[in-house]
Amino acid sequence: MKNLAKPVNFRDLGGITGKDGKKVRPLRILRSGELVKLTKEDIEILSNEFQLRTIIDLRGEKEYGEKPDDEVPGASYYNVDILKKIHETGADLGSLESVQDVHGAHYHMNLLYEQMINNEGAARGFREVLDLLLEQEEGAFLFHCFAGKDRTGLTAAIILTILGVSKEDIIYDYLKTNEQRKEENEELLGKLTEQGFSKEQCDIVEIALTVNAEYLETAYHTAEKIFGSFHNYIYQALKVTKEEEMELQRKYLVN
User: What's this model's pTM, rounded to 2 decimal places?
Assistant: First the structure.
């Protein structure tokens, strides 16, 4: 399999150990950052080698309006705006732009993960993703947001939990984002420094561009507090039945 030049933070979840020692099927479940500036070869690889059939864009209207996903032949595109669904319920996440210091940035990120669990609108969004995953019969399924870290990270945690992947392995995959976005983040932070941003301002932006196990733990703790466990959150908030769980494991796990 050839490497993709773009998108940033792209990976195949295939090979991760799931229920009963089975592995997530390769070339079926993909996660990434935004699908922009793909090379001709990237598109050919996604279309032909991965046989990409479904693209789930978790971004908001402003995000995809300014940078729409590149088209991949053979793939159907769906927008599931997780944050819009949160705002539609009246929840206020605040704005990262209004954060004044590093402590406030960490607070904002933890609040985001808490709301992505403790919100009916977000639950409806995650359920839409699972419905599309259930419908898919062949080829690859890709979900992404802007950086492929928060909305994408929690979506991956939900899917991998359903497939029986351990919490430790889910967090391990989640933290790969920091390695895969390292070059892109350093370039962006360098440009901000050149533009006169202070060190603290750059530190706040860096928090927004990276993941921290603490944030995903906040999601787990919120689910445990409200539903008793992360599994119960999936069953109760996302309304995943035992039959659907078994169907997803049948489709996306292999010996």
Answer: 0.95
d(C-alpha 58, C-alpha 48), whole Å: 24
Per the CB < 8 A criterion, the answer to whether 233 and 116 are in contact is: no
DSSP summary character for residue 48: I
Q: What is the mean pLDDT of residues 58-73?
A: 96
DSSP secondary structure letters along 105-148: HHHHHHHHHHHHHS-HHHHHHHHHHHHHHHH--SSEEEEE-SSS
Residue 177: which residues within 8 A CB-CB, separation 6 or more?
9, 147, 148, 149, 153, 210, 211
Strands, E, within the chain: which ranges?
11-12, 23-24, 29-32, 52-57, 76-79, 140-144, 253-254
Rounded Cα distance, 119 and 65, in Å? 25
